[in-house]
## 1
Amino acid sequence: MRELPTATDGGRPSLPVATDGGRPSLPAGVERRSFDGRERLATRGPTVYGEPSDGEWRLWDAGRSKLGAMLALGMDTGLAGGESVLYLGAASGTTVSHVADFSGPTYAVEFAPRPTRDLLGVAEDRQNLFPLLKDARKPATYAHVVESNLDVLVQDVATRGQAEVALRNRQFLADDGRLLVAIKARSEDVTADPSDVFESVLGELETGYEVLETERLDRFHEDHLGIVARPR
Ligand SMILES: C[S@@+](CC[C@H](N)C(=O)[O-])C[C@H]1O[C@@H](n2cnc3c(N)ncnc32)[C@H](O)[C@@H]1O
């Protein structure tokens, strides 16, 4: 049986990386800065969701962003800054706006029309952000737009079959790319124990990816598991 971290302990050890006082380095373009006396993540860009700003820096609220939570919890995402990104489940652009602030070309897939309208507004301020009103379960419908050999696949889709979505979109990722996914247990099964759901999702994911690190995100997002993986 795999040893999954509990909601309170840390994830498994990750690969050796450059560290910043024991924590993995943040990508270039992401900093820990002081907001109201607390050290918080921040990126540089136009504000999007009413987040506080300090000059050109704006707070990246880990309570509203699973990827922000993964970085805030010290997971080794492998992000250096400047990567090409496919982001699945962009909603109205809260997290993907921060990703576009420190990345290269950023393709943002969302299948609900209402949030995608907001996402279009977010993209107007960001030349490298490309919103796509598409279903992440059907990558063939956007394969003609999204480049291949991408550095990073970020996934935050609140839908059943989250492992399957990651596997279907593996085709866009370079062989040495990274999958950064947040799994929402309740989207798979509202009644099951989240640990059992995560176990099952990881088992499926491992048919196409090597899992490098997992961490429960409960401090910021209840019953979510953050996963860093790379294609097999
Ligand atoms: C938790 S929200 C994402 C929040 C967003 N990642 C952020 O942090 O700003 C999940 C989103 O996934 C979208 N979604 C669910 N299934 C999807 C699918 N098959 N294709 C594209 N988007 C999907 C939902 O419409 C919703 O906007």
Note: Residues 19-231 form a domain with the Rossmann fold fold (CATH 3.40.50.150).
## 2
Amino acid sequence: MLGFLHKRGQKKCTQAPLSIILELPRNKERIGAACTMNFTMDLPGLKGVKVTKMEEREDFIALHVEMPRTPHRCPSCGERTERIHDYRIQKVQHLKLFERWVYLFYRKRRYACRCGKRFAEKACFVERYQRQTVEWNQAFRLRLIQGKNFTDTANQFQTSVTTAMRRFDQLAAPPREEGGSPSSSDCD
Ligand SMILES: [Zn+2]
């Protein structure tokens, strides 16, 4: 299933489409061999996510992903809509694949309702305002409990000691209601 990782030389793999390069104007890194593709991910933590392109960067794998377009219920008036307002690219850290870190370049869609409300689509692999995937957070929390110390765990997960300490404190705190986050029933 993961044979695409080694298909760089094949015809299917092309330079990144211009549209995608234009969407990442702040990314100064050389864009390496890129594989344009279009399939739905079936890896843990990325179920139902559409992968449009994969690139091998210097020290990580970049997966360009988006969610399928589906009718969403407007949080303001309750009407259903699938009218697209716009897209934003959000860089999200994921777990390792073959010992290389994976970053998702998530093309996050916003819908527009007839009532004027604009809102982000549901995406179960990342929570609102998070820079890491849900799967990353689960693995990180487990390591915080089992790991030697915060510094070691932070290094292993390519994050800061401050983040490690903050997440550890959250483990002890009672679960809070997160308004706007997808509920578990949306994400099964
Ligand atoms: Zn509405």
Note: The chain is about 20% helix and 30% strand.
